[in-house]
Amino acid sequence: xxxxxxxxxxxxxxxxxxxxxxxxxxxxxxxxxxxxxx
Length: 38
Prior knowledge:
The N and C termini lie far apart (22 Å). The radius of gyration is 11 Å and the shape is globular. The protein is mainly alpha-helical. It has 1 helix and no strands. The relative contact order is 0.16.
C-alpha cells in the first residue's frame, strides 16, 4: 500500500524539513520504504 503524507505550511521557518526528516527516518527504521521530495 502506498501512502503520501504531505507536510506543508503557509509560513517558512516552522520546522517542516526537520519534521519530514525525523518522520522519514522513523518510518524507515520500522522497515518502510521512504522517498522524500522537496
